[in-house]
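can u pls check wat happens w/ oxa(dethia)-CoA
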Amino acid sequence: MSVLRSVVLGCGSYLPARILSNDELARSVETTDEWIVQRTGIRERHIAAPGEMTSDLAIHAARAALANAHIDADTIDLIVLGTSTPDQTFPATAVTVQHALGISQGAAFDLQAVCSGFVYALSIADSMLRCGKHKRALVIGAETFSRILDWNDRTTCVLFGDGAGAVVLEAQEQPGETSDRGVLTTHLRSDGKHKSKLYVDGGPSSTQTVGHLRMEGKEVFKHAVAMITDVIEDAFEATGTTAADIDWFVPHQANKRIIDGSAHKLGISPEKVVITVDRHGNTSAASIPLALADAVADRRIKRGSLILMEAMGGGFTWGSAMLRW
Ligand code: UT7
């Protein structure tokens, strides 16, 4: 018997040219490189140029993913773009990407699950491909968090950066074993009782402004490891795998201490963890596909690698995904 699986054909990413170091930040807010590195693992982040929008980052990443997959853009019939920093309130940034790529078939939409945006987008695209209505999907995470930061608030402005990453998925008929390629399982969760712990204090319906990111960092930190490990246990259970089977753990890149704590609790050895938070900061929905592209580019991730991803963010939303590359 064969089943439809969403198989990764390629991935790509894009980072804006401008790099903002901790030392440079320390000249405008009361902070130090030492504090930021010790508490978060972040050393620098990329910041979009004036006029450079989330769609611009997403288009670069999508083109890189299509080139890596060796396929033409007009074979894509689904674009799911995870972002909390769209170009405009509407239309969806995904349709701007669709148009720039010369695609006029299928469907394109944005998905808003903050830092869990890529895992959510991957899960939704996977479901849509497996039900047979779409054939090839671009799953993108793209953000310009620099635009919603309060640059006078040292508790948040040192944490985030801009960037985009994308993967191309294709629905393929195959036996559907754990050893076969493709998305093996995804698990999505949310709990709105935590919605005031990480939010933006503006929006079209509330203030008619864009607003700034506000976070009770300690509260988020407190829940992060437990929530992450919970959905990863779900992924292990659904696939009959264990930490020992994982080739690469590609977590959301918010804080090195959260990543280390989760990997330790799950028994995933540090050599199997892909880390980019030191160079990218927290790029929200873009962080996982940026990290994937990094590990593919230097050939850590290869065809057949078993990849475990997780994310947790505002809402709270959280989720995991396991796939055979
Ligand atoms: O991706 C979405 C999910 N987001 C996250 O996962 C973020 C989760 N939270 C965190 O990563 C951490 O809580 C932070 C990195 C945000 C903060 O680390 P912390 O160890 O929880 O520090 P804290 O908030 O308890 O602050 C400790 C001290 C405070 O001073 P006092 O009250 O002890 O005098 C802060 O005011 O550090 C101070 N502080 C800073 N000092 C220098 C806060 N931000 C800074 C800063 N530079 N940038």
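The chain has a mean pLDDT of 98.
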